[in-house]
Amino acid sequence: MIEVKNVSYTYAVGTPFEKNALREISFSVSEGDFLAIAGHTGSGKSTLIQIIAGLIDLQSGAVEVDGESIGVQTARRKIGIVFQYPEHQLFEETVAKDIAFGPRNFGLSETEISKRVEEAMKFVGLDFALKDVSPFELSGGQKRRVAIAGILALKPKYLILDEPTAGLDPKARRNLLAEIKKLHRAGVTIVFVSHSMEDIANLARRAVVLAQGRILFDGEPRKLFAQEKILDAAGLLPPPVTQLILELNRAGLSVDAGAMTLDEAEREILRRLN
Ligand SMILES: Nc1ncnc2c1ncn2[C@@H]1O[C@H](COP(=O)(O)OP(=O)(O)OP(=O)(O)O)[C@@H](O)[C@H]1O
Ligand SMILES: [Mg+2]
Q1: Which CA distances in Å does 16 have to 11, 12, 19, 59, 212?
Q2: What are phi and psi of 98, to 5 degrees?
Protein backbone atom coordinates (compact mmCIF):
# COMPACT_ATOMS: atom_id res chain seq x y z
CA MET A 1 0.00 0.00 0.00
CA ILE A 2 1.12 3.54 -0.74
CA GLU A 3 0.03 6.05 1.88
CA VAL A 4 0.16 9.77 1.28
CA LYS A 5 -0.28 11.58 4.56
CA ASN A 6 -0.97 15.28 4.77
CA VAL A 7 1.45 16.28 2.03
CA SER A 8 1.80 19.94 1.12
CA TYR A 9 4.33 21.33 -1.33
CA THR A 10 5.38 24.84 -2.27
CA TYR A 11 7.67 25.71 -5.18
CA ALA A 12 10.13 28.61 -5.02
CA VAL A 13 9.57 29.26 -1.32
CA GLY A 14 10.40 32.81 -0.28
CA THR A 15 10.60 34.19 -3.83
CA PRO A 16 8.04 36.26 -5.78
CA PHE A 17 7.29 33.02 -7.72
CA GLU A 18 6.22 31.09 -4.62
CA LYS A 19 3.50 28.60 -5.57
CA ASN A 20 1.49 26.28 -3.34
CA ALA A 21 1.27 23.25 -5.61
CA LEU A 22 -0.17 20.77 -3.08
CA ARG A 23 -2.20 21.43 0.03
CA GLU A 24 -2.73 18.80 2.72
CA ILE A 25 -3.10 15.84 0.41
CA SER A 26 -4.01 12.50 2.02
CA PHE A 27 -5.05 9.31 0.26
CA SER A 28 -3.84 5.78 -0.17
CA VAL A 29 -3.35 3.32 -2.99
CA SER A 30 -4.02 -0.31 -2.10
CA GLU A 31 -2.32 -3.24 -3.75
CA GLY A 32 -4.19 -4.14 -6.91
CA ASP A 33 -5.77 -0.70 -7.28
CA PHE A 34 -6.22 0.98 -10.64
CA LEU A 35 -6.30 4.63 -9.67
CA ALA A 36 -6.67 7.66 -11.91
CA ILE A 37 -5.51 11.13 -10.94
CA ALA A 38 -7.41 13.83 -12.81
CA GLY A 39 -7.45 17.60 -12.69
CA HIS A 40 -7.11 20.74 -14.70
CA THR A 41 -3.69 21.84 -15.95
CA GLY A 42 -1.63 23.17 -13.04
CA SER A 43 -3.73 21.38 -10.41
CA GLY A 44 -0.69 19.57 -9.00
CA LYS A 45 -0.88 16.10 -10.59
CA SER A 46 2.73 15.84 -11.75
CA THR A 47 4.04 17.33 -8.52
CA LEU A 48 2.05 14.76 -6.55
CA ILE A 49 3.26 11.72 -8.45
CA GLN A 50 6.87 12.89 -8.33
CA ILE A 51 6.57 13.21 -4.57
CA ILE A 52 5.02 9.73 -4.36
CA ALA A 53 7.90 8.30 -6.40
CA GLY A 54 10.45 10.03 -4.19
CA LEU A 55 11.75 12.27 -6.98
CA ILE A 56 10.82 15.48 -5.18
CA ASP A 57 11.77 15.71 -1.51
CA LEU A 58 8.96 16.15 0.97
CA GLN A 59 8.52 19.51 2.68
CA SER A 60 5.75 18.36 5.01
CA GLY A 61 3.69 15.24 5.55
CA ALA A 62 4.78 11.70 4.71
CA VAL A 63 4.72 9.10 1.94
CA GLU A 64 4.98 5.44 2.91
CA VAL A 65 5.27 2.40 0.67
CA ASP A 66 4.29 -0.82 2.41
CA GLY A 67 4.93 0.91 5.72
CA GLU A 68 8.36 2.21 4.80
CA SER A 69 9.21 5.87 4.16
CA ILE A 70 9.78 6.87 0.54
CA GLY A 71 13.13 8.24 1.70
CA VAL A 72 14.37 4.64 1.92
CA GLN A 73 15.77 3.03 -1.24
CA THR A 74 13.89 -0.26 -0.87
CA ALA A 75 10.62 1.71 -0.80
CA ARG A 76 11.59 3.84 -3.81
CA ARG A 77 12.51 0.77 -5.84
CA LYS A 78 9.00 -0.61 -5.58
CA ILE A 79 7.74 2.32 -7.61
CA GLY A 80 8.17 2.75 -11.35
CA ILE A 81 7.31 6.10 -12.91
CA VAL A 82 6.71 6.85 -16.58
CA PHE A 83 6.86 10.57 -17.31
CA GLN A 84 4.83 12.47 -19.83
CA TYR A 85 6.49 11.97 -23.25
CA PRO A 86 8.95 9.42 -21.84
CA GLU A 87 10.36 8.87 -25.33
CA HIS A 88 12.14 12.23 -24.99
CA GLN A 89 14.36 10.58 -22.43
CA LEU A 90 15.62 7.76 -24.65
CA PHE A 91 19.32 8.20 -25.22
CA GLU A 92 21.14 4.89 -25.76
CA GLU A 93 22.34 3.63 -29.15
CA THR A 94 20.06 0.61 -29.21
CA VAL A 95 16.64 -0.35 -27.93
CA ALA A 96 18.10 -3.13 -25.78
CA LYS A 97 20.66 -0.83 -24.15
CA ASP A 98 18.00 1.71 -23.39
CA ILE A 99 15.73 -0.83 -21.72
CA ALA A 100 18.73 -2.32 -19.86
CA PHE A 101 19.80 1.04 -18.42
CA GLY A 102 17.67 0.93 -15.26
CA PRO A 103 18.23 -2.76 -14.44
CA ARG A 104 21.98 -2.20 -14.87
CA ASN A 105 21.82 0.66 -12.35
CA PHE A 106 20.05 -1.70 -9.97
CA GLY A 107 23.20 -3.84 -10.18
CA LEU A 108 21.55 -6.93 -11.71
CA SER A 109 23.61 -9.63 -13.47
CA GLU A 110 23.98 -9.52 -17.28
CA THR A 111 21.96 -12.74 -17.63
CA GLU A 112 19.14 -11.29 -15.55
CA ILE A 113 19.30 -8.02 -17.48
CA SER A 114 19.00 -9.78 -20.89
CA LYS A 115 16.10 -11.81 -19.60
CA ARG A 116 14.29 -8.73 -18.35
CA VAL A 117 14.91 -6.80 -21.59
CA GLU A 118 13.41 -9.64 -23.62
CA GLU A 119 10.42 -10.02 -21.28
CA ALA A 120 9.73 -6.29 -21.19
CA MET A 121 9.89 -5.99 -24.99
CA LYS A 122 7.51 -8.89 -25.35
CA PHE A 123 5.16 -7.40 -22.81
CA VAL A 124 4.83 -4.06 -24.59
CA GLY A 125 4.51 -5.79 -27.97
CA LEU A 126 7.90 -4.83 -29.41
CA ASP A 127 9.39 -7.36 -31.82
CA PHE A 128 12.58 -8.72 -30.21
CA ALA A 129 14.32 -8.24 -33.58
CA LEU A 130 14.20 -4.49 -32.87
CA LYS A 131 16.59 -4.84 -29.96
CA ASP A 132 19.66 -3.73 -31.93
CA VAL A 133 17.94 -0.87 -33.73
CA SER A 134 18.46 2.74 -32.67
CA PRO A 135 15.41 3.89 -30.71
CA PHE A 136 15.46 7.08 -32.76
CA GLU A 137 14.53 5.15 -35.91
CA LEU A 138 11.25 3.97 -34.41
CA SER A 139 7.76 5.45 -34.71
CA GLY A 140 6.37 7.61 -31.90
CA GLY A 141 4.25 4.77 -30.52
CA GLN A 142 7.18 2.34 -30.63
CA LYS A 143 9.48 4.82 -28.89
CA ARG A 144 6.99 5.17 -26.09
CA ARG A 145 6.89 1.38 -25.77
CA VAL A 146 10.66 1.28 -25.45
CA ALA A 147 10.49 3.91 -22.71
CA ILE A 148 7.78 1.98 -20.86
CA ALA A 149 9.65 -1.32 -21.32
CA GLY A 150 12.65 0.32 -19.60
CA ILE A 151 10.51 0.91 -16.53
CA LEU A 152 8.83 -2.52 -16.65
CA ALA A 153 12.26 -4.15 -16.74
CA LEU A 154 12.67 -2.86 -13.18
CA LYS A 155 9.63 -4.93 -12.22
CA PRO A 156 7.94 -2.25 -10.13
CA LYS A 157 5.18 -3.32 -7.79
CA TYR A 158 3.51 0.07 -8.26
CA LEU A 159 3.51 1.72 -11.68
CA ILE A 160 2.76 5.42 -12.04
CA LEU A 161 2.15 6.86 -15.50
CA ASP A 162 1.82 10.59 -16.27
CA GLU A 163 -0.56 11.03 -19.24
CA PRO A 164 0.63 7.83 -20.90
CA THR A 165 -1.40 8.28 -24.08
CA ALA A 166 -0.65 11.98 -24.71
CA GLY A 167 0.23 12.63 -28.32
CA LEU A 168 -0.33 9.08 -29.58
CA ASP A 169 -2.56 8.32 -32.58
CA PRO A 170 -5.85 6.51 -31.81
CA LYS A 171 -4.49 3.05 -32.59
CA ALA A 172 -1.28 3.41 -30.57
CA ARG A 173 -3.37 4.85 -27.80
CA ARG A 174 -5.77 1.91 -27.76
CA ASN A 175 -2.88 -0.56 -27.79
CA LEU A 176 -1.10 1.17 -24.94
CA LEU A 177 -4.25 1.27 -22.81
CA ALA A 178 -4.75 -2.45 -23.45
CA GLU A 179 -1.19 -3.09 -22.29
CA ILE A 180 -1.69 -1.09 -19.12
CA LYS A 181 -4.81 -3.18 -18.47
CA LYS A 182 -2.78 -6.33 -19.03
CA LEU A 183 -0.15 -5.16 -16.54
CA HIS A 184 -2.84 -4.57 -13.99
CA ARG A 185 -4.21 -8.07 -14.54
CA ALA A 186 -0.67 -9.38 -14.08
CA GLY A 187 -0.73 -7.91 -10.56
CA VAL A 188 0.86 -4.47 -10.95
CA THR A 189 -0.85 -1.66 -9.03
CA ILE A 190 -1.50 1.21 -11.43
CA VAL A 191 -1.73 4.95 -10.83
CA PHE A 192 -2.26 6.99 -13.98
CA VAL A 193 -2.65 10.67 -14.56
CA SER A 194 -5.15 11.43 -17.28
CA HIS A 195 -7.06 14.28 -18.84
CA SER A 196 -9.29 11.82 -20.62
CA MET A 197 -12.46 11.12 -18.68
CA GLU A 198 -13.20 8.43 -21.24
CA ASP A 199 -10.00 6.57 -20.39
CA ILE A 200 -10.74 6.99 -16.70
CA ALA A 201 -14.27 5.63 -17.22
CA ASN A 202 -12.97 2.63 -19.14
CA LEU A 203 -10.00 1.76 -16.95
CA ALA A 204 -9.95 3.16 -13.46
CA ARG A 205 -11.60 1.68 -10.41
CA ARG A 206 -11.01 4.83 -8.47
CA ALA A 207 -10.40 8.48 -9.31
CA VAL A 208 -8.76 11.22 -7.29
CA VAL A 209 -9.55 14.71 -8.58
CA LEU A 210 -7.22 17.60 -7.80
CA ALA A 211 -8.04 21.29 -8.07
CA GLN A 212 -5.56 23.96 -7.03
CA GLY A 213 -3.52 21.45 -5.11
CA ARG A 214 -6.40 20.01 -3.10
CA ILE A 215 -8.35 16.78 -3.38
CA LEU A 216 -11.90 17.56 -4.51
CA PHE A 217 -13.04 14.00 -5.00
CA ASP A 218 -11.81 10.49 -4.17
CA GLY A 219 -14.05 7.61 -5.21
CA GLU A 220 -15.52 5.59 -8.05
CA PRO A 221 -15.44 7.26 -11.47
CA ARG A 222 -19.17 6.65 -12.01
CA LYS A 223 -19.94 8.60 -8.86
CA LEU A 224 -17.68 11.39 -10.02
CA PHE A 225 -19.36 11.72 -13.41
CA ALA A 226 -22.76 12.00 -11.78
CA GLN A 227 -21.59 15.08 -9.85
CA GLU A 228 -21.59 17.99 -12.26
CA LYS A 229 -20.74 20.48 -9.51
CA ILE A 230 -17.46 18.76 -8.64
CA LEU A 231 -16.52 18.38 -12.30
CA ASP A 232 -17.30 22.06 -12.85
CA ALA A 233 -15.22 23.12 -9.87
CA ALA A 234 -12.33 20.99 -11.15
CA GLY A 235 -12.68 22.33 -14.69
CA LEU A 236 -13.40 18.87 -16.10
CA LEU A 237 -16.07 17.50 -18.40
CA PRO A 238 -17.54 14.01 -18.00
CA PRO A 239 -16.90 11.48 -20.80
CA PRO A 240 -18.87 12.13 -24.03
CA VAL A 241 -21.27 9.27 -23.22
CA THR A 242 -22.12 10.80 -19.86
CA GLN A 243 -22.51 14.24 -21.45
CA LEU A 244 -25.03 12.76 -23.87
CA ILE A 245 -26.95 11.11 -21.03
CA LEU A 246 -27.05 14.38 -19.07
CA GLU A 247 -28.46 16.11 -22.18
CA LEU A 248 -31.08 13.39 -22.61
CA ASN A 249 -32.02 13.76 -18.96
CA ARG A 250 -32.43 17.50 -19.35
CA ALA A 251 -34.87 16.60 -22.14
CA GLY A 252 -36.75 14.41 -19.66
CA LEU A 253 -35.45 10.89 -20.31
CA SER A 254 -34.07 10.18 -16.78
CA VAL A 255 -31.34 7.71 -17.63
CA ASP A 256 -28.93 6.73 -14.84
CA ALA A 257 -26.03 9.19 -15.16
CA GLY A 258 -23.73 6.56 -13.63
CA ALA A 259 -23.70 4.77 -17.00
CA MET A 260 -20.35 5.76 -18.40
CA THR A 261 -19.20 3.30 -21.02
CA LEU A 262 -20.80 3.05 -24.45
CA ASP A 263 -22.24 -0.39 -23.68
CA GLU A 264 -23.77 0.69 -20.39
CA ALA A 265 -25.23 3.83 -21.94
CA GLU A 266 -26.74 1.91 -24.84
CA ARG A 267 -28.39 -0.56 -22.48
CA GLU A 268 -29.70 2.19 -20.20
CA ILE A 269 -31.09 4.30 -23.04
CA LEU A 270 -32.77 1.33 -24.71
CA ARG A 271 -34.29 0.33 -21.39
CA ARG A 272 -35.82 3.82 -21.05
CA LEU A 273 -37.08 3.91 -24.59
CA ASN A 274 -38.71 0.48 -24.53
N1 LIG B 1 9.53 23.69 -11.10
C2 LIG B 1 8.52 24.49 -10.77
N3 LIG B 1 8.74 25.74 -10.25
C4 LIG B 1 7.72 26.56 -9.90
N5 LIG B 1 6.42 26.24 -10.04
C6 LIG B 1 6.14 25.03 -10.55
C7 LIG B 1 7.16 24.11 -10.96
N8 LIG B 1 6.57 22.99 -11.43
C9 LIG B 1 5.24 23.19 -11.33
N10 LIG B 1 4.97 24.42 -10.82
C11 LIG B 1 3.65 25.00 -10.54
O12 LIG B 1 2.97 24.15 -9.61
C13 LIG B 1 1.61 23.96 -9.97
C14 LIG B 1 1.31 22.47 -10.19
O15 LIG B 1 2.05 22.03 -11.31
P16 LIG B 1 1.98 20.54 -11.86
O17 LIG B 1 2.99 20.42 -12.94
O18 LIG B 1 2.10 19.60 -10.71
O19 LIG B 1 0.50 20.48 -12.45
P20 LIG B 1 -0.21 19.39 -13.37
O21 LIG B 1 -1.54 19.12 -12.74
O22 LIG B 1 0.69 18.24 -13.59
O23 LIG B 1 -0.44 20.18 -14.74
P24 LIG B 1 -0.50 19.62 -16.27
O25 LIG B 1 -1.87 19.03 -16.44
O26 LIG B 1 -0.35 20.87 -17.07
O27 LIG B 1 0.60 18.64 -16.47
C28 LIG B 1 1.39 24.81 -11.23
O29 LIG B 1 0.86 26.05 -10.83
C30 LIG B 1 2.78 25.00 -11.78
O31 LIG B 1 2.88 26.21 -12.49
MG1 LIG C 1 1.57 17.43 -15.30
Answers
A1: 11, 8, 9, 19, 18
A2: -65, -45
Q: Is 21 in the pocket of ligand 1 (CB under 6 A)?
A: yes
Q: What is the pLDDT of residues 218-269, one digit of tens each?
A: 999 989 988 889 999 999 988 888 888 888 888 887 777 676 778 888 888 8
241 lies in a domain? no
Residue 121: inside a domain, yes or no?
no
Q: Which ligand is nearest to the CA of 11?
A: 1
pLDDT on residue 17: 94
Q: Please tell me the total count of domains within the chain.
A: 1
How much is the pLDDT for 173? 86
Residue 189 forms beta bridges with which residues?
Answer: 158
Check pocket membership of 39 for ligand 1, CB cut-off 6 A. Answer: yes
Helix axes 262-273, 240-250, angle to 10 degrees: 20
Query: Nearest ligand to the C-alpha of residue 52?
Result: 1
Rounded-to-integer distance, Cα 110 and Cα 98, Å: 14
- Distances in Å between the alpha carbon of 132 and those of 64, 117, 210? 39, 12, 42
CATH number at residue 24: 3.40.50.300
pTM, to two decimals? 0.92
Domain assignment of residue 71, yes or no:
yes
Q: Tell me which residue range forms the domain holding 15.
A: 1-78+158-166+189-221
Residue nearest to atom 29 of ligand 1 (CA): 42
Instruction: With respect to residue 22, please indicate whether it lies within any of the assigned structural domains.
Output: yes
| 42 within ligand 1 shell (Cβ under 6 A) | yes
Please tell me the distance between residue 115's alpha carbon and the centre of ligand 2 in angstroms: 33
